[in-house]
Amino acid sequence: MKEDFLTYQARTGPTPMGLEVAKAKGNYIWDRSGKKYLDFIAGVSACTLGHRHPSVVKAIRKQSKKYLHVMVYGEFAQEPAVALSKQIIQYLPPSIEQLYLTNSGTEAIEGALKMAKRYTGRKELIGAHGSYHGSTHGALSLTGYSPQKEGYEPLLPDVNFIRFNNTADLEKITTKTAAVILETIQGGAGFILPESDYLRAVKKRCESVGALLILDEIQPGFGRTGKLFGFMHYDVVPDILVMGKGMGGGLPIGAFASSKAIFECLTDQPTLGHITTFGGNPLIAAAANATLNTLISKKLMAEISAKEALFRSLLVHPCIEEVRGKGLMLAPLLKTPEMANKLVINCLNKGLLLFWLLWEKRAIRISPPLTISNAQIRKGCQILIKELEAISVGVN
Q1: Do 246 and 45 touch, CB atoms closer than 8 A?
Q2: Report field, pTM of the whole predicted structure over 0.85
Q3: Where in the sequence is the domain holding 86, given as residue range(s)?
Q4: Of residues 129, 213, 142, the one with CA closest to residue 177
């Protein structure tokens, strides 16, 4: 299978990990030889409840007996999509009233950017240096890492950047600006948290010039930080909220949410201002409903702070300079990129799945399922520290 994988599937990089997956359940993945791996990646923050959670599998089976795709998004009322939209909105601030379901986070970013330009009648979009919002043209245009964009220009015009956590740069937000888009917690840059009242300062500046604030919650959303969405830690409410990844319990989904007044601009002049065939797919919406219901009913978010504290108490080693992030979105920062690379590979060989971050090469990703147990945290960290010690003394 690995040979066929390398032959017939287009690659995203020159050296894929190539793990031959046989099955996955709970917080573990098994390869074709029967080897078991503790998952500290969760499909890059996507598998909120781990793999094949019973509530998600049950919802998929139940919906599959009723109907699958029947009509393009927004024309027929389909119970799973309606229920999901209603359920998410009830947990959001009153100013966020409606939800548009998409197939992925990057598609939701595209919709949010279009809507901001249409609603404000302005052309300029502002992103942050070090940001990542997806790989489609619009999302890539607002990605604040130049090497990633080389070879794909021209991208969107009228795009500018500010420095994350730098309030002096907020003067760049003007009456020409349609929207500012920020990750609530910068992912690819190394799980960078907003400092003090930074997000509130951005929102205040946006309000003063008539621009919209878009917050990208594709990674922090759905309980990963201990609250349903990361912005809820920072006393700020976005004009447009983007979500994805952990929303679907392991199935592909995204959404952007805003007020009825802002969404109205997508319905007329022209009509069908943003359309999708499979957004709100009933099978996937059913899985997302089950994910959110379980997340809430099992009170998983109440456990996140203690699990973060446990991780931080165990991730102690001279080669770990700091542990960035929040909740179960953590990034130990090592001394060198080479050390980080070795650690990911060596832990894979020892049955622990870690991953890299996009731009910060000294960091490793720790974003396990929210269902990770304290015993599994200790087990994984023991492997990690043991392998890091071997690397530090030159054994591996």
Answers
A1: yes
A2: yes
A3: 57-297
A4: 213
Q: Is residue 204 part of a domain?
A: yes
């309606």: which residue's tokens? 82
pLDDT in tens, 53-92: 999 999 999 999 999 999 999 999 999 999 999 999 999 9
Alpha-carbon distance of 67 to 58, in angstroms, equals 15
| Number of structural domains in the chain | 2
Name the DSSP letter for residue 51. Answer: B
Q: What is the pLDDT of residue 271?
A: 86
CATH number at 122 reads 3.40.640.10
Give the bridge partners for 282, in sequence order.
none
In a domain, 140, yes or no: yes
Q: Are residues 291 and 329 in the same domain?
A: no
Q: Which amino acid is at 329?
A: M
Helix (H) or strand (E) holding 214: strand 212-216
The model's pLDDT over 276-323, given as tens digits with 9 standing for 90+, comes to: 999 999 999 999 999 999 999 999 999 999 999 999 999 999 999 999
Q: Is 298 helix (H, G, I), strand (E, B) or coil?
A: coil
